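Board notes, transcribed. Complex of a protein with tetrahydrodeoxyuridine.
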Amino acid sequence: MPNKQEIIQGLKQRLTFSHSPYSGVQVVAAVVYEVEGKECIAYGVNVENVSYGLTVCAERSAISMAVTNGMTSITALYVMSNQSDPISPCGACRQVVTEFMQDEQAPVLCVNEALNKEWKSTLGHLLPNRFDLS
Ligand code: THU
């Protein structure tokens, strides 16, 4: 079962894979999920485009990867960036996370690359009164 340190290590390994030539803001996310009783992790980075509006955030990259691997429900979200302070998921990503995170108390952990700052939250805190038909 992956622990926090392993996930942070996995984030660090992938942060520079971020495709962010326009903003210089490198972001990597990890989602933790279960498939057939086995805990899994999927990672994703932000992918920018010269047509700026086509940028995909790291959180949504990670979710797309996880869905491809059979994910139906996320139990934790991690976000790391190269900024000095941890960044938290943008509004669009909060709504996309809502689609897959049933437990509003599930952890959302945001860290900086230097690993000397950490911000812990929950989906319930990040997006109260969410739009969700389920
Ligand atoms: N970004 C993410 O990847 N996740 C967020 O939640 C906020 C913003 C990316 C998008 C863009 O490539 C860069 O950060 C600067 O906005």
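The radius of gyration is 14 Å. Residues 20, 23, 25, 27, 46, 48, 55, 57-59, 87, 89-90, 93 surround tetrahydrodeoxyuridine (CB under 6 Å).
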